[in-house]
Design brief:
Blueprint (H helix, E strand, L loop, with lengths): L2 E4 L7 H12 L4 E3 L6 E5 L3 H10 L10 E3 L6 H4 L5 H10 L4 E6 L13 E5 L4 H10 L3 E5 L13 H7 L6 E4 L9 E4 L6 E4 L6
Parallel strand pairs: 1-8, 2-8, 4-6, 5-9
Antiparallel strand pairs: 2-3, 3-7, 4-7, 5-6, 9-10
Helix pairs in contact: 1-5
InterPro entries: DHBP_synth_RibB-like_a/b_dom, Sua5-like_dom, SUA5_domain
Protein name: tRNA threonylcarbamoyl adenosine modification protein, Sua5/YciO/YrdC/YwlC family
GO molecular function, one term: double-stranded RNA binding
């Protein structure tokens, strides 16, 4: 059964965040809030956890396009090729925010991402994922939680999410109702921003 932790952005309790960190370090899966929709996350350096994440999405890990959640831009050089000053300035002016930026990947990607030529980077404007990444010491892998409803694309109610994923994840962070508009995906591999999916963020 998934453990439900009520953590609110105004005052995230350190002991609860530490419990999330312990779970991630032990290969667990979490559901967490962001500045867009609720998402599934795990430790990017734990291949077994990444495989579980892929199974939940009903895809093969090598075919997955899980974005990497950072708490700032300091991790960029860990995963991406060197970027132009103009691109860096562009990123800095839009992050933190509701965007996923596609960048050219380098050869130092975690094992589960090996072979990927590009990588999606997210820096959510939300204190809970920022705090999780900061305390964990490195980014987490992430994928949005879709809804089965034909009208509402993304699940917004953490209680319903917890019910659905009860035996599939280890922790559900209840932070109140989420949004139902995902991040805007922007491809920066050419040096010029190209919107791949229009979401919450406006370029």
């Amino acid at each position: 059964m998934a453990k439900i932790l009520r953590i609110y952005p105004e005052n995230p309790q350190e002991n609860l965040i530490n419990e999330v960190i312990k779970t991630l370090n032990n290969g667990g899966l979490i559901i967490y809030p962001s500045d867009t929709v609720y998402a599934l996350g795990c430790n990017i350096f734990d291949v077994k956890a990444m495989e579980k994440l892929a199974q939940l999405k009903k895809i093969k890990l090598e075919k997955s396009q899980f974005s990497i959640i950072c708490n700032d831009l300091s991790h960029l050089s860990d995963f991406t090729r060197p970027i132009d000053t103009s691109v860096f300035r562009f990123l800095k002016s839009h992050l933190p925010g509701p965007f996923t930026f596609i960048l050219d990947a380098n050869k130092s990607l975690p094992l589960a991402y090996k072979g990927h030529k590009t990588i999606g980077i997210r820096v959510p404007d939300h204190p809970i994922p920022q705090l999780i990444v900061e305390k964990l010491g490195h980014p987490i892998a992430s994928t949005s939680i879709k809804d089965d409803d034909e009208i509402i694309e993304y699940s917004t109610d953490p209680e319903l999410i917890a019910e659905k994923y009860d035996h599939l994840v280890d922790i559900v962070i209840d932070s109140g109702y989420g949004d139902n508009v995902a991040s805007t995906i922007v491809d920066l591999t050419s040096g010029e921003p190209e919107v791949i999916r229009q979401g919450k963020g406006i370029i």
